[in-house]
Amino acid sequence: MKNNKPGISYTIAAKDLAAHLFHVTLTVDNPAPEGQIFALPAWIPGSYMIREFSRNIIRINASAGGKPVELTKLDKHSWRALPAKGRLTVEYEVYAWDLSVRAAHLDQSHGFFNGTSVFLRVPGQEDSPHVVDIQKPDDEAARNWRVATALPELKARRYGFGTYIAKNYDELIDSPVEMGDFALATFKAHGVPHDVVVTGRVPNLDMPRLCADLKQICEAQIAFFEPRSKKAPMDRYVFMTMVVGDGYGGLEHRASTALICSRADLPTTAARDKERSEGYIKFLGLCSHEYFHTWNVKRIKPAVFAPYDLQVENYTPLLWLFEGFTSYYDDLFLVRSGMIDEKGYYKLLGKGVGGVLRGAGRSKQSVADSSFDAWGKYYRQDENAANAIVSYYAKGSLIGLGLDLTIRAKTEGKRSLDDVMRALWQRYGRDFYNGRPRGVTPAEVDALLDEIAGTKLKPFVEKYIRGTEDVPLQKLLAPFGVEYKDERKSSKPSLDANITRDGADSKVTVVHEGGAAHRAGISAGDVLVAIDSLRAGNVDGLLSRYKVGDTVKVHAFRRDELMTFSVKLQGERIPGITLTPQPRQKGELRRPSAV
After folding, report:
1. Which of 178, 214, 224, 253 is most buried when burial is the number of CB atoms within 10 A of its CB?
2. Tally of domains within the chain
3. 259, 219 in Cβ contact below 8 A?
4. Is the pLDDT of residue 3 over 60?
5. How far apart are alpha carbons 40 and 55 in whole angstroms?
6. What is the CA radius of gyration of the chain?
7. What's the pTM?
């Protein structure tokens, strides 16, 4: 029988806002008699890279009964305390200056942390209830601060400082905390409260509109997985958004998400019209993506994630399903919930297709291998990434579209990828946190696809998932009345390299394989200073005066050495994919965007 009495408790206090220090106290009522081990996770679920959060622990000590207890460091993540009688207390400080959704950040404007960055794990007692006391900072800058988290309150008012409780360590670290003077609103989606927390300065933020739009997206996704009961898998959900001048990103959790967005992407009451801007659609797509993860990866999981081993890499070849399919459905739910129309949806889809076709890495790495190699390649990208790897997000989304179209065609519209997702939910996700945690294996995914399609999909899987062929979208879209065109501007002269401004000059960040820059010997990192003796501040502007096939002389600095290159200009190779839905014809198959 499991012990339901809290035996693990934490106190976390923002000790010094200017120095970005959290002070954490961990108390273990019943430490292991042979000496208690403590360990901080090396990575955070949803971000597949060893981040070594323990490097931010500044100092650490232990005591029992008011007397010091010796701590021995076992490796870079863990410590062992000598045997001690009675309650054992560990105190430590955490440096928090990572303004991202993955770790912890603290200053005079706000505090944010994921549990993986601040809460030491007590091996052997992870299934016990964990209590955390979040203390209000003793600083005038924090006078109006509140707390936002999906953790249940124990001795605290909602949004207030005080004591919160988690069923176990996994729930504790899967419930990030935001502290600050944030904007707050709540809406209900099929009866479940959803909090919207916005930290950062956003003049004239149109919170009612944001809530109304998110409500439609959330209700559409809840009804998607539970069309009869419309029952959400959580009792409450929190959208936490940190607003910055320029930023984008999100990380999913079981009952919340942490987001970063650009200030200009949020809706304002000062807007003259009510059309959703491109930036706002992008933000809603991010929210849709992270919310879909509530089902797909937080509850429907790869078998190797059930449970996570947070000290080492957890390899799976299935991220194309968990991230790729989520990327497919995020924009799909924008059109299904009425945020964009069908034309807008296919515009976004065409942009995504072009992005995948741009990289030569797609012909060298499958999405299955990309998934498995996420730890060493996708999350550690360098200047050659576009030529060496493929994104399991971006191509995984096209895999989702291709499978959706294939299943619809083979079943004459009776089945779709929607049925695959609902079957995954019913068999592997619905009861994951209700005592029956079980992840899905690659073989089970293959079998389920065959089952839903009513035929063997092995050729599709071998070509496009475990192989490197491009999904034949033009062929697959045709029966659904969607015209596919590649209208790349091949007559426009180009270096075929990604270039950013570097002061008055231009810096090469990526050289695409087989392009003009590659053939001339230009490399990533080179700073272009002149093209045919004219300063290379505006490369596109200079090249517009030439035609494809012309040769130009490029001067560039590589490190501190001036180099000269003779470049024969090629036509622009950036795919210009347009997808145009045609008027529906009688008997035509139903499009994936249809509700």
Report:
1. 253
2. 4
3. no
4. no
5. 10
6. 26
7. 0.95
